[in-house]
Amino acid sequence: MSLIEQKFARLATDNAPGQEVRQRGDGLDALLKGDVLPGTPVDFSHGDVNENAFAPTPGSLEAFVAGVESGGEQAYTEYRGRADLRMQVAEHLARFTGSPVSGADELIITPGTQGALFLSIASTVAPGDKVAIVRPDYFANRKLVEFIGGEIVPIEMDYLNHADRAGLDLDQLEAAFKAGVKTFLFSNPNNPAGVVYSKDEIGQIAALANRYGATVIVDQLYSRLRYPGVEYTHLRAAGIDPGNVITIMGPSKTESLSGYRLGVAFGAPKLLDRMEKLQAIVSLRAPGYCQAVLRTWFEEPEGYMQERIGQHQAIRDDLLQVLRAVDGVAARTPEAGSYLFPRLPRLTVAPQDFVRILRRQAGVTVTPGTEFSPDAGDSIRLNFSQNRAAALHAIERTAELVRRYRA
């Protein structure tokens, strides 16, 4: 296999949201036990943005139409995004994070937070650079660093055995910095586990980054969907050198605006300059008409976000109750976001086969844990931003199959 073939082989997309339908069922029939379980199919690999679940926030379609009607001035914005929109978004983000944001030179609008993630990593990592990545964490982190040619240094997060913090191994992180790591990449709230880093953990990350001159990229995509009583500390407001931090956010999850492909990155001007240059040759800009939808971000009707958080909390608790009734299942209660990351008991089939069996026999699609860490083969990730009744029935079928295939 050539080097370029090897490079792209590591970017496997078989288990990415929406890609499962492309998988083959070779050899699965011989593993099946029992009958198919009836019920409405549910795809837990991504959130349901339809009207019967979590539709996009009010006014988003109208804002998009207004953008279309404004014509060329909206279609052909600056590469960083339309200036007046950047100023508006920067004001909201400054208030939300507790630290100033300049819309002129510290913020860029990107094609989704995925675009922001790619630009951030590509603007800070060169081939051969050591990059610290949490395990488990968002699956694209590893793939993007490998594609660019960086060397991954894993940092473990023992999320199941801690209730008061994420469980990041800070000694391991410091050792990584001492060994030459100059970039640290993590999500907070964590995707897939839904845990939130404690104030002490964030403070120590900031202190370590300052001590060793490291750049930190923090993905805060779910930081608005936090459950009652959860304390959240924004890294950029925790004393970190502002020249060494990039924060990524966007309206695709909590606000169900994923179809508009909008994200933002904000932080050090020198890094944002690089990101703009890269975006100019990758996509030119975030979709011009769609950028107008950002006018609705942080502008939702009064009480809207509290209601949406409450709805997600109710589904979360429903699903946890069913899962915890299954012997051998371990699941920490997510403190934010819409992901569950339960660890399953030992099964009579391989974990990757169980994921396929689950889809075949129960109509339930989940993401295998190995997407988020090579050590998480016994876990699955579920996005519970779904219709509540459908999600509950789907998790009941999942629980029944876990019992059926338990070793």
Automatic annotation (TrEMBL):
Keyword S-adenosyl-L-methionine attributed: no
Cofactor(s) this protein requires: pyridoxal 5'-phosphate
GO molecular function: L-aspartate:2-oxoglutarate aminotransferase activity; pyridoxal phosphate binding
Alphabetical keyword list: Aminotransferase, Pyridoxal phosphate, Transferase
Location of the Aminotransferase class I/classII large domain: 49-395
UniProt-listed InterPro entries: Aminotransferase_I/II_large (IPR004839), AspAT/PAT-like (IPR050596), PyrdxlP-dep_Trfase (IPR015424), PyrdxlP-dep_Trfase_major (IPR015421), PyrdxlP-dep_Trfase_small (IPR015422)
Superkingdom of the organism of origin: Bacteria
EC number from the UniProt entry: 2.6.1.1
Any Gene Ontology biological process: amino acid metabolic process
Keyword NAD: no
Family from the record: Belongs to the class-I pyridoxal-phosphate-dependent aminotransferase family.
PANTHER family named among the record's database cross-references: ASPARTATE AMINOTRANSFERASE
NCBIfam families: PRK06207.1 (NF004854)
Protein name (database record): Aspartate aminotransferase
